[in-house]
């Protein structure tokens, strides 16, 4: 079943779509970071989208005996089952259901990210963005036209520009002391800031603030959100990237 999401030039893209765009060069569509790292980030973005829509509770377990929610970092609880009319969300929900059924410890969050990221997530997200019209397939010729390569370019650079502007406004809300500061960022923008920091994409935001100063502010935006799922998922994504680095050394 295809996703029901369609582009709205005046609207905000889903979290995973904005993260995908920021992880690619605007002009060439080349990846700016390791693909496996981005897959962890995309898995985190999609899980957070489910949390924002109350399909999944992050960091909580429901005690059936006491009939109450208990805070348990690292745990996940499936609150609603699919279908969601969004193939990526459905796949994420299936992964959550499988992992929570087989893992009873506090490692459920990281296990979901590992499992979902490993399931060709990069290609699946890219295909979904082509389907909704955010990306377009383009064939390029290299070596005097002898070699053809296929790339996926955004239909308009403005989507990535707007995502960067939202991030700048989110940082400015906390970093600036002027009387008329930007409004506080919403959950999706705070999550995007945290994921950009975790994936080390701040270098590519083209912000006037030095990266050594910008990264802590991005983390600050995510950590100061009222939605605790954001900081939990961002930390899990960061830990997942660390696991990849350790694995690559062996």
Can you describe what's shown?
The protein has helices at 15-22, 35-52, 87-102, 108-117, 121-131, 158-175, 187-198, 211-223, 228-248; strands spanning 56-63, 68-78, 135-142, 147-154. It is α+β, with helices and mostly antiparallel strands. The strands form two sheets. A two-stranded antiparallel ribbon has the order 1-2. It has a two-stranded antiparallel ribbon with strand order 3-4. The longest helix has 21 residues, at 228-248.
Which of globular, elongated, flat, extended, rod-shaped describes the shape?
Answer: globular
Kindly report the average pLDDT value. 89
Beta strand %? 5-15%
Report the end-to-end length measured between terminal Cα atoms.
40 Å
State the major sheet.
Answer: 2 strands, antiparallel
Q: Round the Cα radius of gyration to an integer and report it.
A: 19 Å
Low-confidence regions: none
What string, H for helix and E for strand, traces the elements in order? Answer: HHEEHHHEEHHHH
Strand order of the largest sheet: 1-2
Task: Kindly report the oligomeric state of this protein.
Answer: single chain
| Number of helical elements | 9
Please estimate the helix content.
Answer: 40-55%
- Count the beta strands: 4
Structural class: alpha+beta
Labels describing this entry:
single chain, alpha+beta, two-stranded antiparallel sheet, two-stranded antiparallel ribbon, 4 strands, globular
């Amino acid at each position: 079943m295809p996703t029901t999401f369609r582009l709205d030039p005046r609207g905000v893209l889903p979290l995973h779509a904005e993260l995908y765009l920021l992880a690619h060069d605007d002009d060439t569509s080349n990846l700016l970071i390791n693909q496996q790292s981005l897959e962890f980030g995309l898995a985190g973005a999609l899980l957070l989208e489910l949390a924002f829509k109350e399909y999944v509770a992050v960091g909580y377990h429901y005690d059936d005996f006491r009939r109450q929610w208990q805070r348990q970092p690292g745990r996940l609880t499936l609150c609603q089952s699919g279908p969601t009319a969004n193939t990526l969300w459905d796949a994420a929900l299936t992964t959550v259901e499988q992992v929570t059924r087989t893992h009873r410890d506090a490692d459920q969050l990281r296990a979901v990210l590992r499992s979902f990221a490993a399931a060709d997530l990069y290609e699946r997200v890219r295909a979904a963005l082509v389907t909704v019209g955010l990306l377009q397939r383009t064939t390029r010729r290299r070596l005097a036209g002898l070699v053809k390569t296929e790339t996926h370019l955004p239909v308009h650079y403005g989507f990535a520009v707007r995502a960067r502007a939202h991030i700048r406004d989110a940082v400015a809300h906390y970093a600036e002391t002027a009387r008329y500061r930007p409004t506080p960022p919403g959950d999706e923008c705070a999550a995007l800031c945290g994921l950009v920091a975790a994936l080390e994409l701040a270098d590519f935001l083209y912000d006037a603030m030095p990266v050594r100063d910008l990264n802590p502010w991005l983390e600050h935006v995510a950590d100061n959100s009222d939605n605790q799922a954001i900081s939990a998922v961002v930390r899990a994504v960061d830990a997942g990237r660390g696991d990849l680095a350790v694995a690559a050394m062996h």
